[in-house]
Amino acid sequence: MNFKWIISCFMIICLTLLSGCWSSKELTDLGIISAYALDKNEDGEYVGTFQIINPMNVPGSLQGGASGQRPAVTTFTETGVNPTELSNRASRKISRDLYYSHTSLLVISEELARDEGLSAILDSMERALEFRATAKVVITRGIKAGDFIKVLTGIDQIPAENVLKTLDSTEKLYGENINTNLQEFIQSLTSTGKEPLVSGFSLLGDMEKGKTMEQLHSTDFDAILEANGLAVFKEGKLVNWLDGEKARGTMWGLNRIHETPVSIDWENHKKAIAYRVIRQKTDVSAQMKDGKPAISITIRAEGDLRTVAVPVDVTDPHVLLAIEKALGQEIKKEVEAAVQEAKENKTDVFGFGEKLHQSEPDVWKKLEQEWQDVSFPELDVDITVEAFIRRTGVRNNPYLFDLEKKSD
Amino acid sequence: MEKAKISASQLFILMILFQLSNSLLIPLAINAGRDSWLAIIIAMIVSIFLFSVYQALYQYYPALLPTDYMEKLIGKVFGRTLAFLYILFFLFSAARVLREFGVMLLSLAFPETPLFVMSALLILVVVYTVYKGIEVVARTGELLFVVMGLLGLFLLLLIAISGLIDISNLKPFLEEPSKVIKTAFTETLYVPFGEIIVFTMIFPYLNQARKLKKTAIFAIGTTGVILALTMALNISVLGLALTERALFPLLSTIQSIEVGEFLERVDVIFVLILVIGGFFKVSVYVYGAVIGTASLFNIKEPSRLAYPLGMVVLLLSMIVANNYPQHLQEGLKVFPLYAQLPFQVIIPVLLLIIAFFKNKKT
Amino acid sequence: MSYRKFLKKMNRKEQSQDLEKDDPKSIDTSLTENLNIIKEKTGNSPDIIIRIISFGHDPKVRTAIIYADGLVDNPTINEYLVESMENNVQEKLHGKDPFTILSEKVVALGSVKTAKDWDSLFQSLLSGDTVILMDGKNEALIGSTKGGERRSIEQPDSEVSIRGSKEGFTESIATNISLVRRIINNPNLWVEPMNLGKQTKTDVSIMYINGIADNDTVEEVRHRLRRVNLDSILDSGYIEQVIEDESIGLFPTIIHTERPDAAAGNLLEGRIAIFVNGSPNALIVPAVMIQFFQTPEDYYMRFPISTFIRQLRVLMYLISLIGPALYVAITTYHQEMIPTGLLIIIASQTDSVPFPAIVEALIMEVTFEILREAGLRMPNKISSTISIVGALVIGQGAIQAGIVSPAMVIVVSVTAIASLATPSYDIAISARLIRFAFMLSAAIAGFYGIILGLIMLTVHLVSLRSFGVPYISPLAPFEPGNIKDTILRAPLWALNERPKFLSAKNRVRQGKNQRPQVPMSQGMVRADTKEGDKNEF
Questions:
Q1: A243-408: CATH homologous superfamily?
Q2: Taking CB atoms and an 8 Å limit, are A55 and C345 in contact across chains?
């Protein structure tokens, strides 16, 4: 009896002493990375830039005596032949352990994405458990990724957070950009029937000034980060950028539009009526038509009239019907343009291939090999758009209408 | 045998926890692709037949442990040898579960810690539990079952709120029926369903023998449905490609949860499910080995065996494979064919045939 | 094994010692002799008062009234004994047995009995009865005159009553038994007296309701009490420690209460109460863990509120168990779990703290335990000073000096409040100790350590028994019928059955249709409703 207890006690003591907190990390030993940027230099090595949070300098933290006077983040740059090498080499410069679990932004430069492709990098992100699958990915346009995360930002003082929130709100309110996280990116990268889309970001203004605290001391920032376009990938490499209406048309096709303005011409007035979509539903279905695969896209949009800059009687249901029809046409035009662009690029960003796979697995098996290059560009795509005006704001007729009556 | 009784509901809970444990975490029946859930259901139905073999044997000897009635059926020498082999099988299975569990824990949260320490901590708790006897194992099960249930519901709620479920990922349905059948019969039948062979060591403790059939079939069915749903959930959240590549798909599913700004990386739920499940599976296996050894060698206090056998399992788990891929390959290719097929299917069927004829004569 | 042998040896020794003495066993006929024995045995203690009175005349009989000062009710002795005897001094004793006359006619006390041996005489004398000895009689008359200065019935300190009865048990066993009897007016409420403690000869009583309590359990209680062979029993805590199932573990397997209503409620569920003279706490067995999270008030309030409060208590207990451990695990192993914003705040606070989280937590917890112990034992005036110093030390000083982080202070204080809010002190104190173990396991293996610890704790708890009843009943083993009164509290009209795990007999507690029959809807009234249906306002 006693012997057993002695053994068990001995084991517990040994284990506790031996285990000695191998995996424990005190908060004071962590360099919390908020954003991670990857470039490539002339020697073909990866250049990684880490944006590390300075907890003491973040406004709002209790004891941060220096908060608001010094930048909330610090950046370090390191090179390496692969991301793992790079990360561990960085310890030569950084006094703390690099901690990736709170990295919410992965920035990749256009160059790297275009020339090298992302397949090699993403494996190390996915394999290492620390990196969040929900971290967002963006591509920089016309600027090095490393420089991009050095720019200080105003309203949200941690630049990574600023970028994330910008991306989030612009997808929700405007719909030209897409919020892609690492997992979604890898999912579409590995799918044969879908190609990934990633938002682009560019810098407006002077990069050098944007790095200093001076930037934050004025109302008009010298450097501003702006969401700009959608990067289209094919076989892991960036092949094209979608901008403006084409970008939004793609988002319509992906059912990713939440709120967005749609403006139409009315009675010779350019873009006189603005409509804001508040809810929409896009259904994409694939079927066989005359032995050929065909895709039909059905969009139902609901929203309000927000600007009516022409004298028109919006209390009249017939007029509203006409406006609805015109709106539908406008949206359809955008989507058509986007589909056309995708076909020209031979990149199935809409995931039509996946839809076909789901509904016609046998056909898909035959087409899978050459889907992007042969079958997709010849695909028959039918688009139907219905737009509904639910409200006209808190006014009925525009005052222009009354003015016109007066003048009559 | 110890002097103890467990109720039908306790057996039900034990069976569910035992079968779910590590099967919830691994990509179960993933060779069947999108239809892995179907393979699980098929394996579940087949395993009910397998169970009726065990149950028929139990009906012949309701008060005896299998290690005891083997002796009666095929003679002293063969019976005892076979019983000994079964004990080894249980120990080896326990070691495999322990290994799997330790690796998951390390790759999840404790990369720098040696595997031995993590496994040893768990085996300590297991030994303590087994030492206390089957009644305590069963009661612990009842409490932890509630915890597991609540966690499961919470998880489902979070996934639903995050809007991650995309049912279209499960389509097309039945792309390759032959694969489904093959997976069901060569893998899923043995793990987790065939593993209930160890419960033949526990059936004699049931206080109402006539409830056994209903309880066990209900437990197997529930497990099958839960596992099928889990795999379907994983695939619908992650897509097939990611699920196939993930060592622990449920972990990836949990990591994709993003509710509001603050409910992210709720990996701890996974750790909880992992530890509770691993604890139960190893406990039941070790208990089976302990009680079998005690009856085989006529040891008065079975609880004394908990320590030595626990240590055996711990050491076995360290030497069972060099690395995790090797362990997985063993689990998919070698173990089912050379250990699980004979011990879970062939021998019980043969024993049943012998028992049938022996009891017919008398 | 060796323990049992040792006990046997002890018993044998005692018996032989008893035999060696040649004390007179029974009372002598001579009064003088008897009084001498009494004086000798009590060592001439001045509080043993002996008064000699001549009783009757023709012939006069010398009679002695003996009582222990302070234990008796003096007016009773004066009025009903001494006065009465003096008034009856004219009684002619000729040809009659003066003893019978004394006991039947003269002594005007409620309970009178006789004793023939010294043991029972001293027993009665020292428990406050009055002994009357008569010359020429080898028998003593014992009149019940218990009384004297005692604490009156007050509100219990340790269990505050909000809604229920404000009465609390006192130190007198008779009062305590009577308090319960006042609640349960039922002849089936049985009391079995016992006398335990070699030196103190303390009165102990078992109380149960015959027909509800399980006979085997009652027998088990009797058996365990008979085994008690302690020198002294100063409080029910002495008994508790020698009759409980698990004496090494931290969890109480016997519940105690100061409230008669709580005791009555438990008796009615089929439990057994043990009263010990001198202790205001009645022991109640068998106890299950869930009881420590319940109070009698739960049954007096509306059921949704009670259910909520009960669950809150379990949550508080869990917090007080693993609160600091969770903090340590999260900040040293699982930082990814904290939302980024919060992590930055915590990180900025800990940046200046020189200790690892576990050391910080240990410092704060130990400081708190010291403060609590200091505050508990001090008189009120000093304890307020302590709380001021404590608040300054913890709240201000430690943070400003940068020794601990504010987040840690929050965690420790929440834990402390949670631990203070657990209704049973016995169970809360177990959490105080186990908390340290959890903190260490969290420091060693993070969440894994905490979870393993919790499993270990669960295994330990389910392996406990209290007088044969599994400690976690009715949750494990699960009793579907009794789940209504655990961390839930079903409406009173639905609590139809007594706990199954306590007793198999007499399970039905109340009639089936106890749900109040509400008059017809007061909102929408049917057209054919008559006046006076209580629906018009």
A1: Nutrient germinant receptor protein C, domain 3 (3.30.300.210)
A2: yes
Contact call for residues C57 and C89 (beta carbons, < 8 A): yes
**Closest residue, chain B, to A364 (C-alpha):** B172
ipTM: 0.93
Does the beta-carbon distance from A25 to C346 stay under 8 Å? Answer: no
What pLDDT, on the 0 to 100 scale, is given for residue C533? 55
- Mutant choice from C400, C444, C447, C448 vs A, greatest count of A C-beta within 10 A: C444
Distances from the Cα of B105 to the Cαs of A389, B217, B286, in angstroms? 55, 32, 20
SS (H, E, C) A23-91: CCCCHHHEEEEEEEEEEECCCCCEEEEEEEECHHHCCCCCCCCCECCECCEEEEEEEECCHHHHHHHHH
Q: State the pLDDT at residue A11.
A: 67
Of C337, C459, C478, the CB nearest to B142: C478
Would you say A54 and A32 are in contact if contact means Cβ atoms under 8 Å apart? no
Instruction: Please give the model's pTM, rounded to 2 decimal places.
Output: 0.88
Closest CB to B122 among C333, C452, C463: C452
Instruction: Mark which residues 150-189 of C lie under 8 Å from A by CB.
Output: none
Q: Nearest by CB to B108, which of A129, A354, A359?
A: A129
List pLDDT tens digits, range C137-189: 888 888 888 887 888 888 888 888 888 889 999 998 989 999 999 999 999 99
DSSP per-residue string spanning A335-349: HHHHHHHHHHHT--T
Write down the pLDDT at residue B90.
Answer: 94
Tokens (6 digits) for C535: 């629906």
Residue of A26, A51, A130 best to disrupt the C interface, most CBs of C under 10 A: A26
> In this model, does residue B107 exceed pLDDT 60?
yes
Q: What is the CATH number of domain B8-358?
A: 1.10.4160.10
- Determine the Cα–Cα distance for residues A144 and A141; give it in Å rounded to an integer: 8
pLDDT class for C1, splitting at 50, 70, 90?
very low
pLDDT at residue C16 greater than cutoff 70: no
Interface membership of A117 toward C (CB under 8 Å): no
Give the nearest partner residue to C340 out of A19, A62, A102, using CB atoms.
A102
Residue B227 has pLDDT above 60, yes or no: yes
What tens digit of pLDDT does each residue of C471-493 get?
A: 998 888 888 888 888 888 989 88
Number of cross-chain residue pairs from A and C with Cβ atoms under 8 Å apart: 80
Residues of C in contact with A58 (CB under 8 A): 344, 348
Residue C509 Cα distances to B164, C182, C217, C499, angstroms: 51, 20, 20, 10
Structure tokens at C353: 């703290």
Asked if the Cβ–Cβ distance from B241 to A187 is below 8 Å, we say: yes
Q: Which two tokens stand for residue A118?
A: 């992302």
Distance of residue A12 Cα from the nearest chain B Cα, in angstroms? 8
**A226: which strand partners?**
A202
- Residue bearing tokens 């950028």: A241
Quote the distance between the C-alpha of residue B220 and its chain's center: 11
CA C320 to chain centroid, in Å, comes to: 24
- Which stretch of C91-95, C133-137, C516-520 has the lowest confidence by average pLDDT? C91-95
